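Section 5.1 Outputs to date
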Amino acid sequence: MLASCANEVKEKKVNTPMGVARIWLENYYHHNDYELAKQYSTDETAAMIDTIKTMIFPDQPTTEKVAFEVKNVQCKQVQGADEAECTCKYEEGNEPYTEIIQLVRKEGQWLVSAIQADENLLQDEDIEKMTKDFEKTLDRLLEQ
């Protein structure tokens, strides 16, 4: 019974747009705990996680941990509204990133409903590097 109460208190701490956005980011990007991220996602976002996980990270354990730190989360919400938008700034491997996370409140729980990268974030050389890295990874997987 005591453990049940402790979980309930913990759950209430992460039932705000800012708390859910932070937990979602940390688990999706850093810990690769997709199942926990899906618990804080709408059905559509959970399906997107499954698709990405299957296509890009097929049953491959991640042993390499990259430095990750959430730097700032700021959320906009109209008083009493069931929608919020959080701008999340974080660093992964000392590279700064910005994500805009849309959240909705369903049955009293805040959930991530959409994610988009800051449009100013990626430049042509970044996209080219990501494409080359993806191709190398794909080649390695095909060789196995």
